[in-house]
Amino acid sequence: MTAAQTHHCHCEDTTALGWTPGHPEPEQPLRWGDKFPEGARKNLQNTQLRRNLKYATTKIRTKRNTRVEEMPDWEQLRDAASAIKHYTMSHLPELLEEMERNVQARGGIVHWARDAQEANQIIHQIVASKQVEEVVKVKSMVTQEIGMNKYLAERGISAWETDLAEMIVQLSEDMPSHIVVPAIHRNRAEIRAIFANRMEDAPENLSTIPRELAMAARAHLRKKFLSAKVAISGSNMMIADSGTLTVFESEGNGRMCLTLPETLISVVGIEKIVPNYQAMEVFAQLLPRSATGERMNPYTSLWTGVTPGDGPQEFHLVLVDNGRSKALADPIGRQALHCIRCGACMNVCPVYEHVGGHAYGSVYPGPIGAILTPQLTGAVDRKDPNSALPFASSLCGACFEACPVKIDIPTALVHLRHRVIEANRGGIPDMWDVAMAASSPIMGSGSMFAKAGRVASMARFVGGKNQRIGALPYPASMWTGSRDIPAPPAESFRQWWGKHEEESK
């Protein structure tokens, strides 16, 4: 773990004097907190949070762009990755069975978990059989998704996060707010306070200097690495034709977890698989550049089954579904399963940059979380907080442009919005139902739409010199209360086209 790596985990030093606990680990890591509008409203009032987010996302985005510009075949790599993911999802059952055969042939044990409860039961049974009270962990989104740490803690087993940012989140009793840099919402002053208050062996007079913070974390974790007999990891990619698993990381904590303990348990979502090493090579170029702006990850670990005398002598692979099969059945929504967890979509998203990850109420925040979480949880009822997530976007398309595997997030968002609207039809019409019904005759008639356009052009007088309308009476005030409306142009396209046609005759 390096001092430089701490810059990925938090932001500029500020005058913050202390730290307060965040969001304790919930019962449902995919569904916690308020609905997005309420969560966003609260976070928008937190100016320190917004400064932290802007500083960090800008820095990561700049590094990513620099590395991408070095790649003359970047778009070809994106096309290749998209094609590989499409092939993988189209042949997922066969590839998973091939993976199982190859893991077992090399001395590993494979478990299948239908949901979070079953996955946690399997993991606990394995850990309990080793008669240990603590395990070390490599950063893993799927273990966050299933609430594994809380499940084990309730049964007397401590799961220690060894990734620096995840350790910060764990010590502060918080929830992650980013896929790659989960403590992105914290600055150095807050992290120093967290270490001083919660790290049992924190040095006295600890400063906010990144190197000192990293060294304190290293000293704290070294004892855990050397004493742990069981480790738990995820995997960035499973390679089906050899039964190999991979972890791409920047600190070296993953390498320690994957090599020192006697038993290794890898918990992996069923979609995190590629056919062969040739396919992995494509993602090995895309992932580090998209995630942290590095040409390659400092530590890329690959392991295949059990090797006598080298590394863990017992290996378990837990394959987790937890709603993925249902998502796979949706021809549009299944794109979310292509995600390689790079976080690039969050770093360019204007909504995420302003409200942060906690506003999404899921361990998968940002644009990708807005399409992944509702599918994993089957959220369509408006009473379900996750049903609001597809609406947490301006549909600007920046996420699609940044995604290394070309997930069309805007299209998926619109698709999921439609699904929510259709599922909640009936009952007493709300304001939007009335507005849409009133506008349908105009939208459905060319002549009426043209007349409406001419009437709308009169609003230029309301817009004034700035040509923006900042306030309208109710119910239009529901829109102008939080945003301006550009005043219509003096000449509509229809009017321009009519003149053009006359002139060309």
Could you characterize the architecture of this molecule?
The protein is 48% helix and 10% strand. It has 2 domains: 319 residues, 3-Layer(aba) Sandwich (Rossmann fold), CATH 3.40.50; 55 residues, no CATH class. The relative contact order is 0.13. It has 505 residues and is an alpha/beta fold. It is globular. The N terminus is likely disordered. The strands form 3 sheets. Strands 1-10-7-4-2-3 form a 6-stranded parallel beta sheet, with helices on both faces. A 4-stranded mixed beta sheet has the order 8-5-6-9, sandwiched between helices. A two-stranded antiparallel ribbon has the order 11-12.
Keywords:
disordered N terminus, Rossmann fold, globular, 505 residues, single chain, alpha/beta
Provide a quick synopsis of the model.
This protein is of the alpha/beta class and 505 residues long. It contains 24 helices and 12 strands. It has helices at residues 6-9, 36-44, 47-69, 74-90, 92-105, 116-129, 141-145, 148-153, 164-171, 188-198, 210-227, 253-259, 277-292, 324-328, 344-348, 350-355, 366-377, 398-402, 409-423, 431-443, 446-456, 460-463, 477-480, 493-504, and strands at 109-113, 134-137, 158-161, 230-233, 237-239, 244-249, 263-269, 273-274, 299-304, 314-320, 468-469, 485-486.
